[in-house]
């Protein structure tokens, strides 16, 4: 099969490799489309260590062509893949925290992933797609599952005020999910006027630039601050802004992936406000059916977030595009 192989940090090539064979309990999927995210970029640059050679790619949809079938998944089914692998027997798995499995991994990080013609996945990790969701859009649902998992942890509910810092792909999904859960007002914050416009079209009640955002959020919430602040940039200094923005007794949800090892925080405000500070990692299998349903019913609108479509052979070009944060660029989807 054809695959884009990461030979070492920063070195990709398109190669013919052996098509994987599904083991017991696995299915073979012909990949139709895949998505690129910041984790792929970190693996590519070496910021996330992996074993080489590796086929990256953890956001993917396709068609089941071989392997174990059951009443839920059969050959010919169009499916979305849950890339988070887990053992099912460790302490965290037994407690229902499969996303924290110490023995697990991620398809496209610990094992070969979806930037190829075919990929194998556990039968339990593939979810049928309704006809209303096309393959080009489907990889974004994997991102949606991580946002849904995070908002479930934060307990976002109707009537709460929610501020989302950072309006990239995940920030735009957080805006839509918060609206779907009945939050009001939902406030999107970005220095990019273009991204603020996207958020407004997707349902944000208020959008703000980064300037004076803390004061403006306070003004929009009766002077108290937001009930929930979702930090979606992965920039450490935004954590401090989140603490300043949340109301006393509110919740700060750290959704971004932080690779910095130090930074300044308003420690007295953490004491004085007594906020709940939560993080969220990946998603669980239970997040996939609900996310698929939200998209199928039109509650979550994904197509406006897809701004570029490239053939999978141009993965290196796509990663270079991802490094440059420019207006008019959101999600890059690869065609296989």
Structure write-up:
This protein has 336 residues and is an alpha/beta fold. It has two domains: 2-137 and 302-335, Medium-chain alcohol dehydrogenases, catalytic domain (Quinone Oxidoreductase, Chain A, domain 1, Alpha-Beta Complex), CATH 3.90.180; 152-279, 3-Layer(aba) Sandwich (Rossmann fold). The protein has ten helices and 17 strands. The strands form four sheets. Strands 3, 4, 5, 8, 9, 16 and 17 form a seven-stranded mixed beta sheet that branches. A six-stranded parallel beta sheet has the order 12-11-10-13-14-15, sandwiched between helices. It has a two-stranded antiparallel ribbon with strand order 1-2. Helix 4 links the parallel strand 10 (162-165) and strand 11 (186-189). The protein is globular, with a radius of gyration of 20 Å. The model has no long low-confidence stretch (mean pLDDT 96).
**Rg of Cα set:** 20 Å
The CATH superfamily of the largest domain bears the name Medium-chain alcohol dehydrogenases, catalytic domain
Number of helices: 10
Q: Give the count of structural domains.
A: 2
Main sheet specs: 7 strands, mixed
- The helix/strand series, from N terminus to C terminus, equals EEEHEEEHEEEHEHEHEHEHEHEHEHE
The CATH topology of the largest domain:
Quinone Oxidoreductase, Chain A, domain 1
The parts where pLDDT drops under 50 for at least 5 residues are none
Strand segment count: 17
Structural class: alpha/beta
**Tell me, what's the shape?**
globular
Share of helix, binned: 25-40%
The mean pLDDT is: 96
End-to-end separation: 11 Å
**Strand residue percentage:** 25-35%
The CATH architecture category of the largest domain equals Alpha-Beta Complex
- Which CATH first-tier class of the largest domain would you pick? Alpha Beta
